[in-house]
Amino acid sequence: MVDPMKRRELLRLSVVWPLMIKTENGKARGETRNITGEGFFLYCSERLREGVVYPVVIKLPEKLVEMKGKVTWSNL
């Protein structure tokens, strides 16, 4: 985990890729807004709970990438 004071110093790449998140209420659509070596910022119209690990599928231009991600900050 990156020190909070260093978090803003990470290289950020602005990319918008569609994604699907499996939540307690079913599937939610969203998109990435930027990525770093430590994680990514995403936009999703459904509230995601901090501390919860969600399965995520990101649609890259040439393939689908499946992963799990823990929500560390949420602002809906």
SSE layout and pairings?
Blueprint: E1 13-14, E2 18-23, E3 26-35, E4 40-44, E5 53-59, E6 64-70
Antiparallel strand pairs: 1-3, 2-3, 2-5, 3-4, 5-6
Question: Mind explaining what this structure looks like?
Answer:
By secondary structure, the chain is mainly beta. Helix content is 0%, strand content 49%. The model has no long low-confidence stretch (mean pLDDT 88).
Which features does this protein show?
globular; about 80 residues; 6-stranded antiparallel β-sheet; mainly beta
In the predicted model, the low-confidence regions spanning at least 5 consecutive residues are none
Average pLDDT metric? 88
What percent of residues adopt helix (DSSP H or I)? Answer: under 10%
Beta percentage is over 45%
The profile of the biggest β sheet is: 6 strands, antiparallel
Radius of gyration: 12 Å
Number of helices: 0
Between the first and last Cα atoms, what is the distance in angstroms? 23 Å
User: Rough shape?
Assistant: globular
What is the tally of beta strands?
Answer: 6
Q: What structural class is derived from the secondary structure elements?
A: mainly beta
String of helices and strands: EEEEEE
